[in-house]
Amino acid sequence: MFCSAGRKGNKFTGLGQILGRTATMKSLQSMTENTSPGLTSSNIRFVLVRTSHPGNIGAAARAMRTMGHARLVLVAPLHYPHADVTALAAGAEDVLENIVVVPDLATAIADCRLVLGCTARQRGVPLPEISPRIAAERLQQAPPNDEVALVFGNERSGLENEELMRCHAAVHIPSVADFSSLNLAQAVQVLAYELRLAALQGVALLPPPLKSDPLATAAEMEYFFAHLAQTLIDIDFHKGRAAVTIERRLRRLFQRAEPEQRELRILRGIFDDAQRMARLAGSKKE
Ligand code: SAH
Question: How crowded is residue 193: how many other Cβ atoms within 10 Å of its Cβ?
Answer without folding.
Answer: 15
